[in-house]
Amino acid sequence: MKKKIIVAGCGFGGLQFVNHLKKDLFDIIIVDKVNHHQFPPLFYQVAASQIEPSTVSFPIRKIFQKRKDVRIRLASVLSVNKEQNYIDTTIGRFNYDYLVISTGTSTNFYGNSRVEKNVMGLKSTYQSINVRNEILHNFEELLYAENKVG
Question: Does domain 3-143 have CATH number 3.40.50.720?
């Protein structure tokens, strides 16, 4: 019987980990909140309207479609029981022999609630689109603004 590996998160770390495992050696379950992998180094280009959002987001299932040893589950991890080797998720419990936690990063506002409330993030495709839309909206407003200089 193959050992079970659960990979919580399919960002750079989780994706690279699974890609470097020898095929069919393990039974692998990837648990992620979203069904796509995102490429953060290019988010600024989406925000600047230089590239389309579809160029920085890739369906996880498509990445692993030829791997019979990899299953994808869309869920959030609620808890980890390391003594009994299982995780509880929003869709149920999964047992594992090995657990890889690669849930990515989150922005640290260092307790500054004003910054947290007023700053636009750039850590996802969705946020990149929001920044782009805000920039374009501001350009549109500027285009039709009355000249009040002088």
Answer: no
Structural tokens at position 14: 């989780």
| pTM of the predicted model over 0.85 | no
Instruction: Extract the tokens encoding 24.
Output: 């069919």
Of 103, 51, 53, the C-alpha closest to 76 is 103
| HSE of 113, CA atoms in CB hemisphere, 13 A | 0
**Nearest to residue 129, comparing CAs of 46, 40, 37, 35?**
46
- Please report, for the chain, the start and end positions of each structural domain, with discontinuous segments joined by +: 3-143
- pLDDT tens digit string along 81-136? 999 999 999 999 999 999 999 998 888 999 999 999 999 989 999 999 999 999 99
Residue identified by tokens 């160029």 is 55
